[in-house]
Amino acid sequence: MTKHDRPAPDVTAFGPDFTYAFDDWIKSSEGIGSVPKDSFGRKVGIIGAGISGIVCAYELMKLGLHPVVYESGQLGGRLRSQKFEGSSTAIAELGGMRFPISSTAFYHYVDMLGIESRPFPNPLTEAAGSTVIDLAGKTLYAETVDDLPTLFREVSDAYNKALEDHAQFGALQKAIKARDAAKVKELWDPIVRDWDDRSFYDFIASSEAFKKLSFRHREVFGQVGFGTGGWDSDFPNSMLEILRVNLLGLDDDQRFMVGGVEQVPRGLWARSPEKMEHWPAGMTLQKLHGGSTLPGVVKVHREGEDGQFVITDRWGRIEKYDAVISTCQSWLMTTSMDFEERLLSQEMWMALDRTRYMQSSKTFVMVDRPFWRDRDPQTGREVMSVTLTDRMTRGTYLFEEGPDEPAVICLTYSWMSDALKMEPLPIDQRVELALDSLRKIYPDVDIAKHIVGNPITVSWESDENFLGAFKGALPGHYRYNHRMYGHFVQNDMPVEQRGLFLAGDGISWTPAWVEGAVQTALNAVWGVMNHMGGAAPASNPGPGDAYGEHGPIDLGD
Ligand SMILES: Cc1cc2nc3c(=O)[nH]c(=O)nc-3n(C[C@H](O)[C@H](O)[C@H](O)COP(=O)(O)OP(=O)(O)OC[C@H]3O[C@@H](n4cnc5c(N)ncnc54)[C@H](O)[C@@H]3O)c2cc1C
User: Fold this and answer.
1) For the structural domain made of 3-77+259-354+472-550, what CATH number should be given?
2) pTM to 2 decimals?
């Protein structure tokens, strides 16, 4: 067991595209590197105070640089834990909510802040207790996977077989576990060539394992997926993205952050690093900023060919920087900012604008107690369970702090067209629709009578600071991702483009997972350090030092 009884991960988010151990780099007692003393105090503008921007700022402050973070919405970005009115424990996790233990760079910061986590109550897990799967009007109750009809086992076996047939899954995951970079590349790179043009649905429909089964099996897979549910929303996505989820254990062993995940970015904002160059002991990002982030950015340009970057905020304040990191969703660089075009190549703008974001909506209510643990006297079953369904709610999740404590129901967590159905609706109507669906599944349970406080909802796509929930790459997008991800290594770039870095969920190979946001932030930190004339220690090479040898395969244009 590791800190806070979290099991040690068997598989970690190592590669498969960039086979570099980010966790080793940041954990090393040698430190991640240094910048020359005459660079101390040089300013770096950071657009966005999500986890990516905050990790960048924290690490750059440690190096003795002066990060300045701009935020147009809320600190924490898509790690947003909203408290229910009047409660100190009941929270709605509006963005990221379940964090796989393979996310070792992310957990480095979680552990540093001493944040406790516990198993997430996913379907068919011990933490959930019981699960209901309601498909095509049939309601199934299960406490373990063995309680489900054999069709579910057939679906799961078929997917495992398809992974083996198309992606040498066992061998590839073994190489990832062993962090055998050469082997990972040997196995993964041909898969990139073969599957970049093909969708998740194609993978299922063309696999011999699923061809032998009925259409119903595909439908069930679409609902239940490989555990957490709702995977048919991803059917049009590039299969490469789904393979990364499976290979890196992102859908497995997920944990819930006690007290809310927003504590991670907020904790880093307020924490003083033990070791820090240049700044006096006790310095924090919060103090460095005089308490708060700067307002949203409306303009970014550069003086001369390689002069300073100039950022204008929404109230017209103009500040100059030696480097800039942009961590917001990439569409915002064209929709919400006047971003000087020459700072990126046209190929890069193409990639940033073609990037496709998925929609997602969640609606939560607080209830008086975890009544779902009551047992039906006739059947002996829990009266309500974590629920996966083809009805509008798609996924319903249950959160409890104790038998007599207020508890939280995520009535509905949906994606893509299911999220769009909710998008124009006011919150009460969303709750009504969700309760209607659940009433059909649980005719004898009166959920409404347990509701206390006011509901909380989100549609990430209708928030002007996001325009979508997270990236979901389409077939043919590998080259776009390759351009964006590799942009932090700038030696061969025209001089006017150097010094601007990209980071965050949309740049990563594993969008919708916080680990990707953290890893890309670390790439940008290395980029800035290098730009300022600094370097990582030879014995602890940074991501940019390893990129030539271990970087993702280039498919060429
Ligand atoms: C619904 C949902 C569910 C998710 N589930 C999970 C999960 O279960 N597990 C997991 O690991 N990950 C999950 N994720 C992904 C995870 O939340 C993200 O990867 C991560 O939070 C992204 O961080 P970021 O810093 O890259 O981006 P963001 O959090 O988007 O940060 C960028 C910031 O930039 C700000 N900004 C925008 N425009 C400007 C401007 N002009 N000026 C200044 N600031 C600006 C935004 O307000 C935002 O705060 C989920 C995300 C969503 C939305």
Assistant:
1) 3.50.50.60
2) 0.98
